Amino acid sequence: MEEPWDFEFLSRIADSCVSFLSEFVDDWLANDMRVSIFKILLSWLIFSLVAIHFAWKVYGNTVNDMYYRQGTGQNGGTPDTAPHLSGWESTAGGTLKTHRE
User: What is the phi/psi pair of residue 78, to 5°?
Assistant: First the structure.
């Protein structure tokens, strides 16, 4: 059996949501400065998200292809080492370095 506080808890949550929404609607319909600023910022946020969504739909594959390296190797198409040098050689001296140097 369900305990009676479950229904009371749910009804309190529902009442608080309804009261919040009613206060929000009252504030939304009011013509004061903070509501106007909130409307401007909310519309800017929505516009930006929609613009980002459409830009990603149009240019997403192009951007992804620019940064995705195809092929095999260490980082996609990058070879593991340069063909004329071994892994630890430098172009200046050509000597191998040890951990003591």
Answer: -75, 130
Give the type of residue at 31. N
Q: In the chain, where are the structural domains located?
A: 4-69
2, 9 contact by CB (below 8 A): no
- Tokens for 69, please give them: 């390296």
Provide the token pair at 50.
């929609």
The pTM score is: 0.46
What is the Cα–Cα distance from 32 to 41, expressed in whole angstroms?
A: 15
> What pLDDT, in 10s, does the model give residues 32-67?
888 889 889 999 999 999 999 999 999 888 888 777
- Count of Cβ atoms closer than 10 Å to residue 81 Cβ: 11
